[in-house]
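USER:
Class, as today's exercise, take the chain set out below, and explain how the chain folds.
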Amino acid sequence: MHMKTILDNLYACRSPRYLQNDPLSFCHRYTGSLDQEIVGLIASSFAYGKVTSIKRSVERILAVVNPSPLQFIESYDPASARKLLTGFKHRFNDDLDLSALFLAIKTMIEQAGSIGDYFLRYYDKQAEDLTSCLVAFTSSILHMDYSAVYGSKDIPADSCFPFLFPSPASGSACKRLCMFLRWMVRPADGIDLGLWQAIPPGKLIIPVDAHIQRISRFLGLTQRKQTDWRMAQEITAALKTFDSDDPVKYDFSLCHIGISEGCSGTKREACQTCAIFDICGENQK
């Protein structure tokens, strides 16, 4: 069977039950687009590490911002809200980083009306993809005034806040930001949200985590060994041969072969029922 047919079938048969293992599930708790944007950026920012740890950290944050994330952000004051965040820790990001994230979101909404409209300030319709847009977007966030959080306008050199906003300019694969963009840009299909319709899905770059990196190598979508921006672009270019208008639509189903179905490249019992078994290069070894 042709790879496009297998991938298209995999996309068509995606299981919404996998959302429970995905940080995108937090966005589906809300109906307002601005609430979904805010929660999406928060959930994707801390989507590193084990799924259980990610879910625990995001639940802790939502307990603070509920019932209306938008109202919380609009009235957010780092000084008065500091006690609400005391003790927050997600691996190497702490309560100060979370406070800075809240302030960045507030600034974007105050300046542009929404995170999406702020992002569109840097969008270039003529560009092949969102590389230049992401570079400008992350740079603008890291150059905001954070004196209300850190006591000085500039982010301290030892702060881990910049980890939340990596840039393609440094070579980073920017997995979490690419994931957030997929959620916002791709058409609403029961999984992704389709909130930012001014950006064509064909401009997206696939979020590359350990699962996508491994599975893409099995499928021959990349030969690169380093998980970086060039790998993300290479995998996306390969997927465009199957759907040039929406190449990243395959991301959710492919990554959940690892996240939810247990593919590790070594568990042969998982291979026997895998939807991509016939085209997986690992099975030809």
Remarks:
- The mean pLDDT is 93.
